[in-house]
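for the recovery benchmark. tokens below, seq after
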């Protein structure tokens, strides 16, 4: 797993979270994976409350 751009928590907390996910099998729910050039449309949907899960942008 790689996390890029997260500003929540410390590095140690992230390491603990990743370990917990490995042990328990918990997985993040991904709503959609899109190219970065479509970010605006997804942020608009997010602000409207029309997402269910994480939005993943690819380069």
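predicted aa per position
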């Amino acid at each position: 797993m790689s996390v890029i751009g997260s500003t929540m928590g410390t590095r140690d907390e992230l390491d603990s979270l990743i370990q917990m996910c490995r042990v328990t099998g918990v997985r993040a729910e991904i709503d959609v994976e899109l190219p970065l050039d479509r970010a605006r449309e997804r942020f608009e949907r997010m602000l409207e409350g029309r997402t269910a899960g994480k939005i993943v942008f690819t380069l």
